[in-house]
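One-letter codes give the sequence; the fold follows as tokens. An example follows:
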Amino acid sequence: MRILVTNDDGIYSPGLGVAEKIARSLSDDVWVVAPETEQSGASHSLTLTFPLRLRKISECSFSVTGTPTDCVMMAALHILKAQPPDLVLSGVNWGSNLAGDVTYSGTIAGAMEGCALGIPSIAMSQAADDNAREKIDWSPGEIHGPNLIRRLVDAGWPEDSLININFPSCSAAEVTGVEVTPQGQYDLQSTEIHERHDMRNRPYYWIGMRRRKTAPPQESDLGAVYANKIAVTPLHMNLTDVMALEKMRQTLEQK
């Protein structure tokens, strides 16, 4: 099995190393194609307005001056064109990708692009304290990831779906299980825009999301991770709201 590993945190992210270890527990044919710099929040964007640069780091490892989507495209349609990957692993992201995060996440986008290209794809994220990035415990993914990915690959899933995995913020020994769960919804989230000024007194801005800690509802990806479980959520590429579609048909297509 040929496995492509990508991420949105960049080629030198420790989480990418975790994903590569997971991949190598499944296959000897592992390729890494990741962004040259951090692309968090890039979502499913691709680069159209300037050329991409491809840097060869080792025989099977490359960086791309673009987004996770660019990386998967570059890997599947150029580097590995003669033999495309059989599986895409995107991550392991620093920080969770739960609930509404999935619409912003470059990690999810890496798996989404793999799915769009017809390749089974899995996104992986490690929940962590926002204020302790350098102290993150990667052990849940390192210890539990290989067997979980192996079980998913053996079981399979629909071609137009991708898998979103979130490891809880605890040690591997403290993980209480695996829960297959729907996408949740944040109830206490706010987007903040901070204005600052440079040395010439010109304004510039930082956009960020601040979340208050709260007990989330059970039977959601948020609830699973809160309970120290590994959350596994299948995500669909088709974003059509079927219920709304039928209601609109009744309203707008009446003769």
Q: What stands out?
A: The longest helix spans residues 139-155. Residues 30 and 204 are 41 Å apart (CA to CA). The chain has six helices and eleven strands.
